[in-house]
Amino acid sequence: MKYDPVKRSLGKVFNTTPFARKLFYRLLDTLLLRTWYIKKEIRQIKGLLPREAQFLDAGAGFGQYSYFLSRVSKTWKITAVDVKEDQVEDCNQFFNKIGRADRVHFEVADLTKFQQQEIYDAALSVDVMEHIENDVGVFKNICNSLKQGGILLISTPSDKGGSDVQHNHEESFIDEHVRDGYSIEDIEEKLKNAGFSFVDSKYSYGKPGVLSWKLSMKYPIIMLNKSKLFFLILPFYYILTFPFCLLLNYIDVHNFHESGTGLIVKAIK
């Protein structure tokens, strides 16, 4: 299943004006359960960071997390990197239009090669590592780019059904993934070997979250891959499913999960 073409199509629809772009971010923040988890983690670590913290958004995509970071603190400096030149240019234009280019800057960078010695106080990697074969190299690069005591937050699929893979013979729901998910032991070992002194991992996307993801993301993407005509049906679909997905997301993020299809990882250098 091709995920990127659908994201690009949605991005074009909501990229006509800064207001539309902000609305797009708000929709992503509401529908994507991983955003609920990441926002919660960022608010928790805010007090641990310097007032003028340097933040790295590693694999920034549409820029929705950089936008959120810029709202959490007006004194943070955010460097957002992504391998896609068109997205980087587009994001820089948007942040310039809304008057935040002085504290949010996007750069084209390959995370397997990106490294700046002890520049950042914190880094964020949301649904990126499952797309990169050389994950160990990226973990090392981010660790080297963090100051001593710097914090890395990661959201990524787990091996407990991440990428919608339930059995060994199944393929990932999303073609762009190079791995179906991490075990807690695997990702913690890799991060410690990369130079992090402390790693804490927990499952996200328990049973409520999985159902919400299917209703809010999987089924709409399947429909849109079949025909662009489903863009016309999508608003009515979400009118019916949106309240239920909100409730499921709330339940998921406020409960402990012994297992889940996602992982939220905090690593400290």
The neighbouring-strand order within the major sheet is 3-2-1-4-5-7-6
End-to-end CA span: 36 Å
Radius of gyration: 18 Å
> What integer is the average pLDDT?
89
Strand content: 15-25%
Q: What is the overall number of helices?
A: 9
Protein model, in words:
This protein is of the alpha/beta class and 269 residues long. It is built from nine helices and seven strands; from the N terminus they run H-H-H-E-H-E-H-E-E-H-E-H-E-H-H-E. Strands 3-2-1-4-5-7-6 form a seven-stranded mixed beta sheet, sandwiched between helices. Helix 3 packs parallel to helix 4 and helix 8 runs antiparallel to helix 9. It is globular.
Brief rundown of the structure:
Helix content is 46%, strand content 18%.
Annotate the secondary structure layout.
Blueprint: H1 4-13, H2 18-31, H3 33-45, E1 54-58, H4 64-72, E2 77-82, H5 85-97, E3 104-108, E4 120-126, H6 135-145, E5 146-157, H7 184-193, E6 198-204, H8 207-226, H9 230-253, E7 262-268
Parallel strand pairs: 1-2, 1-4, 2-3, 4-5
Antiparallel strand pairs: 5-7, 6-7
Salient structural properties:
single chain, 269 residues, alpha/beta, seven-stranded mixed β-sheet, 46% helix
